[in-house]
Amino acid sequence: MSSFQPLQSRYILPSFVERTAYGVKESNPYNKLFEERIVFLGVQVDDASANDVMAQLLFLESDDPDREIQMYINSPGGSFTAMLAIYDTIQYVRPDVRTICLGQAASAAAVLLAAGTKGKRMALPNSRVLIHQPSVEGIYGQVSDLEIQAAEVQRMRDLLESTLAKHTGRSKEQIATDIDRDKILTAEQAVEYGIVDEVLPYRKLSAMQQQS
């Protein structure tokens, strides 16, 4: 939960036209996922992406407060405060929020993965999860300013420890020890740690096993 990486080049997102009862409309994969109540967090966690995710969660709650929301995560993490905004919204909305990690859920994104509804937190087999202590950019200023910032960093760390302890079942003391350095977990290790509840099998493999 520190400085952001520079923007990377991205695959061009395809768009397509489909006919509806109201005429023709242009769409894209993200729109189609949203229609299925799937929120996709595939970028760094910052104020812009947090606002997008929160808006989707709040809309889906108003659309149907009793129907589950799925949130897919492939994110390197990012801003601690932006993460907290998404976290609070996940806890605030009435629908269960199923979280699924594909690729990675690192830093702030790992907290969001763990924040899903208990029993509905999942990861694909080759996913990785990374947790560590929050950090900030270089701090400059008067001694009094440095003291204020140091106290805020400690508050952030205490909050992170309490939040992870709440959702993993681990003690706050163990969390404190584990996040002193980067702790990287495989999907199976994330289950053991309590960040997710299960590793999802590949759909193709499951279908083949059912046919055999």
TrEMBL record:
Gene Ontology CC terms, in alphabetical order: cytoplasm; endopeptidase Clp complex
Location (main, coarse): cytoplasm
Compartment(s) of residence: Cytoplasm
One example of a Gene Ontology biological process annotation: protein quality control for misfolded or incompletely synthesized proteins
Keyword Protease found: yes
InterPro entries reported for this sequence: ClpP, ClpP/crotonase-like_dom_sf, ClpP/TepA, ClpP_His_AS, ClpP_Ser_AS
PROSITE patterns (alphabetical): CLP_PROTEASE_HIS, CLP_PROTEASE_SER
Hydrolase in keyword set: yes
PANTHER family found in the cross-reference section: ATP-DEPENDENT CLP PROTEASE PROTEOLYTIC SUBUNIT, ATP-DEPENDENT CLP PROTEASE PROTEOLYTIC SUBUNIT-LIKE-RELATED
Protein name: ATP-dependent Clp protease proteolytic subunit
Gene it is expressed from: clpP
